[in-house]
TrEMBL record:
<dbReference type="Pfam" id="PF00121">
    <property type="entry name" value="TIM"/>
</dbReference>
<comment type="similarity">
    <text>Belongs to the triosephosphate isomerase family.</text>
</comment>
<dbReference type="InterPro" id="IPR035990">
    <property type="entry name" value="TIM_sf"/>
</dbReference>
<keyword id="KW-0324">Glycolysis</keyword>
<comment type="subunit">
    <text>Homodimer.</text>
</comment>
<keyword id="KW-0963">Cytoplasm</keyword>
<protein>
    <recommendedName>
        <fullName>Triosephosphate isomerase</fullName>
        <ecNumber>5.3.1.1</ecNumber>
    </recommendedName>
</protein>
<comment type="pathway">
    <text>Carbohydrate degradation; glycolysis; D-glyceraldehyde 3-phosphate from glycerone phosphate: step 1/1.</text>
</comment>
<comment type="pathway">
    <text>Carbohydrate biosynthesis; gluconeogenesis.</text>
</comment>
<keyword id="KW-0312">Gluconeogenesis</keyword>
<keyword id="KW-0413">Isomerase</keyword>
<dbReference type="GO" id="GO:0004807">
    <property type="term" value="F:triose-phosphate isomerase activity"/>
</dbReference>
<dbReference type="InterPro" id="IPR013785">
    <property type="entry name" value="Aldolase_TIM"/>
</dbReference>
<dbReference type="InterPro" id="IPR000652">
    <property type="entry name" value="Triosephosphate_isomerase"/>
</dbReference>
Length: 254
């Protein structure tokens, strides 16, 4: 069985105390149940403020070394006059081994483009971090039958020009915008078939994994993981308590 990746971005949630409790609880659960991570790679992507807290808690708690720690964003330059931004060397210094790039919330509200996502992927790889590139189409594009073209344009725009060694350090997440968050509805297995076939045709065996994200929960995780080409799950709300992530790891490990 190839390794499934199952993880969560906390988005803009959690105090340091909450981050510490989550990381400790998760690590303890994984120490007690090593079978959960035999074929599954858990990852947690806290806000930047909590990176070092999560790093230290995972390092100090048995089981914590099984978790890949990520950052939700990083700038493409290594340092300089970019007020409010944080660079890849900085998030790496704080413990991140992965950088999430191009989530639809960042594309919509913070003007991420294929250009900036491409620069950020290269910055992550330049510093030896994994790049988790998110792609996904809005509802009107899906309704018009354009999902596959739209997401391939996003992926190619950021990844074209990378050789196979570089692509091996990239994970892709297909997160249709209409499926994400409180007002989203999870994609059905039928709706995922085309996009995952297209992403796997172009990037299968070259990128580390291709994940699905958007309203994943313990009720739908198994059927989503069963869609051909889905190598893992990228989860928001359903994994914002560590027990939720543990339950999803259990489903992926089954
Ligand atoms: O955006 C997501 C993960 O990046 C998914 O969020 P939800 O699981 O809360 O829909």
């Amino acid at each position: 069985m190839t390794t499934r990746w199952v993880g969560t971005s906390w988005k803009m949630t959690k105090t340091l105390a909450e981050a510490r409790d989550y990381a400790a609880g998760l690590a303890e659960a994984l120490a007690e149940r090593p079978e959960l991570t035999r074929d599954v790679q858990p990852f947690v992507i806290p806000p930047h403020t909590a990176l070092t807290t999560v790093r230290d808690t995972l390092a100090q708690t048995p089981g914590g070394s099984a978790v890949v720690l990520g950052a939700q964003n990083a700038h493409w330059e290594d340092a300089g006059a970019w007020t409010g931004e944080i660079s890849v060397p900085q998030v790496a210094d704080a413990g991140a081994r992965l950088v999430e790039i191009g989530h639809s919330e960042r594309r919509e509200h913070f003007a991420e483009t294929v250009q900036s996502t491409g620069l950020k992927v290269r910055a992550a790889l330049r510093h030896g971090l994994l790049a988790l590139l998110c792609v996904g189409e809005p509802e009107e594009v899906r309704a018009a039958g354009g999902s596959t073209t739209f997401i391939l344009d996003q992926a190619r725009g950021a990844l074209d020009g990378l050789d196979d060694a570089a692509l091996g350090e990239v994970l892709l997440a297909y997160e249709p915008i209409w499926a994400i968050g409180e007002h989203g509805r999870p994609a059905s297995p039928e709706e995922l078939a085309g996009p995952f076939a297209a992403l796997q045709e172009e990037y299968g065996g070259r990128v580390r994994a291709v994940l699905y994200g958007g309203s994943v929960n313990t009720d739908n995780a198994a059927e989503l993981l069963a869609v051909p080409g889905v190598d893992g799950l990228f989860v928001g709300r359903a994994a914002w308590e560590f027990q939720g992530l543990v339950r999803l790891l259990q489903i992926a490990a089954a």
